[in-house]
Design a protein that fits this description.
The structure is a single chain. Helix content is 2%, strand content 43%. It is mainly β. Strand 20 and strand 21 form a beta hairpin. The longest helix is centred in the last third of the chain and has 7 residues.
């Protein structure tokens, strides 16, 4: 839990991506921000700022190609109400070289599959425009999707949608296993008194699976998941529910709810590196390690972080 370094940002950040083979990390602005920042967490060298292209803003997430050359960033072509993916050449100072169609509105987070080429994109389906801040402009007609896109040609390989009566379930965050099983989490924009599934599982051309959970669990999640992560064995998905003050855990293989960890305003989740192990952070300043298999929870305290209000996401890696 000890803080090694801090970095000021131009505005509120959201998600981050690590460049393979380097100590570089990219932090993206929270929607509808227009900056990303590249830095080495152990270097005093100044950070590099990436500005969004004209008519675009970042959605908060991105992912690198396996060789670390290409950065793919979720973006909004806001005047044309079109989701897109910016392609940046990290070897050329993060110059924006191309743009891919996200094939839906609101690409929020994406992962790269094991072939090193296919992007799985969580399209939230919510139309926004920076002139309207964070206002949601199409809740009645939104159409979220889980899209599989060829990162070289931009072709749409597969397009998976939820049942029509769940079209207000915004697919937001996801995590992927080495064998391309995907766990994703959602946020519901429909009636406040309706209980809906908030976690989904998917692989390849199969149908989406929505694991069942009892009404007590769903009520406790408050129709909102904030982040997703898989632990080292790839068998358990963590889905944080910050509005409900808990982090929930789900078996990928058995497609079922396993239990939860109470954590007030707990949103950030990341693998800790040991089987069953997760790191979780809270807007109230708590950082904990929890092992789903043993049930043990350890609070990680650093006096220097006492005033920190942890935000939406965590990224874990070995320096």
């Amino acid at each position: 839990g000890r803080i090694l370094a801090t970095l000021p940002l131009p505005g509120r950040g959201h998600g981050a991506a690590r460049r393979p083979g380097k100590r570089e990390v990219v932090v993206f602005a929270r929607r509808p921000g227009r900056f990303a920042v590249v830095f080495d967490p152990l270097s005093p060298a100044p950070a590099r700022r990436i500005d969004a292209a004209a008519g675009r803003h970042f959605y908060g997430h991105g992912v690198f190609s396996p060789d670390g050359r290409w950065l793919f960033a979720c973006e909004n072509d806001f005047d044309r109400a079109r989701g897109c993916i910016g392609v940046y050449d990290a070897s050329a100072g993060y110059r924006r070289e191309a743009e891919l169609d996200a094939h839906a509105i609101g690409p929020h987070e994406m992962v790269l599959l094991s072939d090193g080429r296919t992007l799985a994109v969580a399209n939230g389906g919510i139309l926004t425009h920076p002139d309207k801040g964070r206002q949601k402009l199409n809740v009645e007609t939104m159409q979220p999707s889980l899209a599989y896109i060829d990162s070289e040609s931009g072709a749409l390989l597969h397009d998976h949608r939820l049942a029509p009566d769940l079209h207000q379930l915004s697919i937001r965050h996801l995590a992927v296993t080495p064998d391309d099983r995907i766990g994703f989490v959602m946020q519901y924009e429909g009636p406040r008194n309706r209980l809906v599934p908030l976690v989904g599982l998917h692989r390849g051309e199969e149908d989406i699976v929505l694991p069942e959970a009892g009404p007590t669990v769903l009520r406790g999640m408050r129709q909102y998941c904030g982040s997703a992560a898989l632990e080292a064995s790839g068998e358990v998905l963590a889905a944080s529910a910050p509005r409900g003050g808990r982090v929930t855990f789900w078996s990928l293989r058995e497609a079922r709810y396993l239990g939860d960890l109470a954590l007030g305003d707990g949103c950030g989740v990341a693998a800790s590196g040991e089987p069953g192990g997760f790191l979780a952070s809270s807007g109230y300043g708590r950082l904990v390690h929890h092992n789903v298999f043993s049930g043990e929870t350890l609070r990680l305290d650093d006096p220097e972080s006492a005033s920190v209000a942890w935000d939406n996401h965590l990224l874990s890696f070995t320096l």
